[in-house]
Amino acid sequence: MYSGIFISTESAVVAVFYSFFVGIVIYKTIKWGNIPEILLNSALFRSHFIYNKR
What we know:
Layout: H1 8-26, H2 35-51
């Protein structure tokens, strides 16, 4: 019997939300207006690795 709380994909999502919480609430380095730009940059960065296989 396994007793984990999350599977690996779910734990990655929890880590992302936790880092957003820490950046917005605790350190106050992320502003609400910057979130769309952060998400766009993350998507562009990730798509580079998906579609540029050599």
